[in-house]
Amino acid sequence: MPQLNPNPWLSIMIMSWLTFSLIIQPKMLSFTPTNPPINKTPMTSKTNPWPWPWS
C-alpha cells in the first residue's frame, strides 16, 4: 500500500512545519494590531420584570 509509505511526505511535512514555526510565525507575531482593544466598562441595561398574568 503506497499510502503508508512515509518516505516522501514525512520530510515535506516536517520541513513545512519548521518553516512555519521558525520563519513565518515570528514575523506574523511581530505585527502590531491596527485596532487595539479599548478598556471600556460594559454598559448594563436595566431590565424590567416580566408582567406575568397569573401572578
From TrEMBL:
<keyword id="KW-0496">Mitochondrion</keyword>
<keyword id="KW-1133">Transmembrane helix</keyword>
<keyword id="KW-0813">Transport</keyword>
<dbReference type="InterPro" id="IPR050635">
    <property type="entry name" value="ATPase_protein_8"/>
</dbReference>
<dbReference type="Pfam" id="PF00895">
    <property type="entry name" value="ATP-synt_8"/>
</dbReference>
<dbReference type="GO" id="GO:0015078">
    <property type="term" value="F:proton transmembrane transporter activity"/>
</dbReference>
<protein>
    <recommendedName>
        <fullName>ATP synthase complex subunit 8</fullName>
    </recommendedName>
</protein>
<keyword id="KW-0138">CF(0)</keyword>
<keyword id="KW-0472">Membrane</keyword>
<feature type="region of interest" description="Disordered">
    <location>
        <begin position="35"/>
        <end position="55"/>
    </location>
</feature>
<dbReference type="GO" id="GO:0031966">
    <property type="term" value="C:mitochondrial membrane"/>
</dbReference>
<dbReference type="GO" id="GO:0015986">
    <property type="term" value="P:proton motive force-driven ATP synthesis"/>
</dbReference>
<dbReference type="InterPro" id="IPR001421">
    <property type="entry name" value="ATP8_metazoa"/>
</dbReference>
<feature type="compositionally biased region" description="Polar residues">
    <location>
        <begin position="35"/>
        <end position="48"/>
    </location>
</feature>
<keyword id="KW-0812">Transmembrane</keyword>
<dbReference type="GO" id="GO:0045259">
    <property type="term" value="C:proton-transporting ATP synthase complex"/>
</dbReference>
<keyword id="KW-0375">Hydrogen ion transport</keyword>
<feature type="transmembrane region" description="Helical">
    <location>
        <begin position="6"/>
        <end position="24"/>
    </location>
</feature>
<keyword id="KW-0406">Ion transport</keyword>
<keyword id="KW-0066">ATP synthesis</keyword>
<comment type="similarity">
    <text>Belongs to the ATPase protein 8 family.</text>
</comment>
